[in-house]
Specification:
Elements: E1 3-6, H1 14-25, E2 30-32, E3 39-42, H2 47-57, E4 66-68, H3 72-75, H4 83-90, E5 97-102, E6 118-122, H5 127-136, E7 140-144, H6 157-164, E8 170-173, E9 183-186, E10 193-196
Parallel strand pairs: 1-8, 2-8, 4-6, 5-9
Antiparallel strand pairs: 2-3, 3-7, 4-7, 5-6, 9-10
Helix pairs in contact: 1-5
Length: 206
């Protein structure tokens, strides 16, 4: 049964955020809100968490997992970014974008695309997510909470708790968030390639 954490959307309770972070450090798989939609999240190096996300979403080994980062400095530890790409990403963060970039040695091999050696990264613009990342002190390994054969993610914490109670360890609820996943931009070849049109404006990348 998943623990249910009710978090204030504008002023997240420090004690509650600390409890959620502790559960992640202990290996928990959580559902949490972002500036685009709800996501599944676990500790960066958790093989069990990755396997559980793959099972819930029925993902193959070519799926790009995302490292949700606190800020640009943290993001830079996990991906290689040249000057042109740096400026483009910097101008778009925080926001509803996921960027696919070459992974550094800091990224566990099991998170990298098996052929391209890339990984997704993003810096969300969401108070609760930011508070959690600050408390955690490292990126959160994440994937959009979009169930197989469904067109839209779930937007209500109570609904997620009700439907996924048996496969999650915790649900963080700070009210309704969006229904649209992030816009995905692939910079792995140095040029912007729009992989998915989502919540983030693509104008600057076209």
């Amino acid at each position: 049964m998943a623990k249910y954490f009710d978090v204030h959307p504008d002023n997240p309770q420090p004690r509650t955020i600390s409890q959620v972070a502790d559960s992640i450090r202990s290996g928990a798989l959580i559902a949490y809100p972002t500036d685009s939609c709800y996501a599944l999240g676990c500790k960066l190096g958790s093989r069990d968490g990755i396997d559980r996300i793959r099972t819930i979403r029925k993902l193959d080994d070519r799926h790009h997992f995302t490292l949700v980062c606190q800020d640009f400095a943290q993001l830079g530890q996990f991906v290689r970014v040249d000057n042109d790409v740096f400026r483009a990403i910097k101008a778009s963060t925080p926001g509803s974008y996921t960027f696919i970039l070459p992974a550094t040695r800091e990224v566990p091999r099991m998170l990298q695309h098996p052929k391209k050696k890339t990984v997704g990264v993003r810096i969300p613009d969401h108070v609760v997510t930011h508070a959690l990342l600050t408390e955690l002190g490292e990126p959160l390994l994440s994937s959009t909470l979009l169930l197989p054969d469904e067109d839209e993610p779930m937007t209500q914490g109570w609904e997620i708790k009700d439907r996924l109670d048996h496969v999650l360890d915790a649900v963080v609820d700070s009210g309704e968030c969006g229904t649209e996943p992030t816009t995905v931009i692939d910079f792995s070849n140095g040029e912007a390639e729009i992989i998915r049109h989502g919540a983030g404006d693509t104008t600057r990348f076209e």
